[in-house]
Write a structure and sequence with these properties.
It is built from 21 helices and no strands. The chain is mostly helical and 410 residues long.
């Protein structure tokens, strides 16, 4: 059975790195789900074991945060924000800064994937209307969304999982990870500006409206803002994070203006299925004892991952091959008990590593695909020119901070 589990695990993770099965329209979500079904059908895990493997509190938090982000999306907040940035009567370098600050700030609380999904189209249209090249701004958008999401326990899916497994406190997480995330945002801006400064020039064309934009539902935005403040307040209470998020979700679903069906249609159900499938696959792999034995070769699972020299390269390689979410699941399954500092370090490095290459995070891929629909082509090399140096700078800043504070060892 161990050989069977290892074979399925290898197929799933290699396929995750490729992104799909050649010749078939099966994406990463389908790969994870099929892997779980094969393991169940092959007897590697039974129904009760599969249910026990799925971390439902993590899924509940992800679902609730998606509903919160959907409240802002349905209210036209993202569209309004994107157009305001694109039409700002300012030099390109200042508009670039607005993109970084806005995307990074929103991604600390709202799902970074949703932020870039909503902002990319109107940003492209507005910048094209001004005669500007949108590519540096799109690279900054994706990079800032990734960097900003590293600051909090709810900024991205892998941080949610780490926070649940490690039973981390929301505000303690911010204290440790907030400054490295800010440094990473500065690295994003500086790298993009230095790389593209020869093409970031003013044109004679004044800012023009980029087309019809749905009107901003100010009441809906206010409701979303109040829900966000309520959620942050609940994180100060002794309530579990999942309970806090679900309470806020319930409040958002009570509405006279927006149907429940409309709200739920904006939830990324594919990501939730991906998580569920990977929970089952990694649980089977962990039960085989192979990951624990592999990490034991480095002096023990918890001790090994607590060293910068091992964790940083693993994060870079894993996040840009199989993806940061599958990587985090694998690391946590092989080392079920870690120090808080190690959890913080895993969250930071696996998130910041997503900026290295175009395939490093879902946010990058979303920006490329949404931009292509607007006629803007952002290539692998163009992204790498900025992604590699911004990631190196971000890793250097995060590593120095974690070492200086004693959060992680060399």
């Amino acid at each position: 059975m161990t050989v069977f589990v290892l074979a399925v695990f290898a197929v799933v993770y290699v396929s995750m790195a490729i992104g799909r099965w050649p010749g078939l329209q099966i994406d990463r979500t389908g790969i994870a789900l099929l892997g779980a079904l094969v393991l169940y059908g092959g007897g590697a895990i039974d129904g009760a074991g599969a249910l026990a493997a799925i971390d439902f509190p993590t899924l509940a938090i992800l679902f609730g945060l998606m509903v919160l982000s959907a409240q802002f999306a349905a209210s036209g907040f993202y569209d309004w924000t994107s157009q305001r940035i694109a039409m700002a009567d300012a030099a390109p370098s200042l508009v670039l800064g607005l993109v970084v600050v806005t995307a990074g700030g929103l991604s600390t609380i709202l799902a970074n994937d949703v932020v870039v999904f909503a902002m990319t189209p109107l940003l492209c249209r507005g910048l094209l209307g001004r005669g500007w090249d949108p590519r540096p701004f799109l690279i900054a958008l994706a990079g800032a969304a990734n960097a900003g999401s590293a600051a909090t326990m709810i900024g991205n899916p892998q941080n949610v999982l780490i926070g649940q497994v490690g039973k981390l406190d929301f505000w303690s997480f911010v204290v440790v990870c907030g400054l490295p995330a800010l440094f990473a945002l500065a690295a994003v801006y500086l790298t993009v500006w230095l790389t593209w400064r020869g093409r970031l020039r003013m044109t004679a064309a004044p800012p023009q409206p980029s087309g019809a934009v749905p009107p901003l539902d100010r009441i809906g935005v206010a409701k979303g803002g109040a829900a966000t403040l309520l959620l942050l307040g609940l994180f100060l209470s002794p309530l579990p994070a999942a309970t806090s998020v679900l309470l806020v979700t319930g409040c958002l679903l009570i509405s006279r203006r927006m149907a429940t069906r409309q709200m739920l249609s904006l939830v990324d159900w594919h990501l939730l299925v991906l998580f569920a499938g990977l929970f089952v696959v990694t649980a089977c792999f962990s039960a085989s004892g192979l990951p624990a034995r592999a990490l034991a070769e480095f002096g023990g699972a918890a001790q090994a991952l607590g060293h910068l020299a091992l964790l940083a390269p693993i994060s870079l390689l894993g996040s840009n091959t199989v993806g940061n979410v599958p990587l985090v699941m694998l690391l946590l399954s092989g080392a079920p008990s870690l120090t808080d500092g190690t959890y913080y370090a895993i969250a930071l490095f696996t998130t910041l590593a997503g900026n290295l290459l175009l395939v490093g995070s879902f946010a990058n891929i979303i920006v490329v695909e949404r931009a292509a629909q607007e006629g803007v082509r952002l290539g692998f090399y163009e992204h790498a020119r900025c992604g590699i140096p911004m990631t190196i700078l971000s890793f250097a800043g995060a590593g120095a901070w974690l070492l200086a504070t004693g959060t992680i060892r060399p």
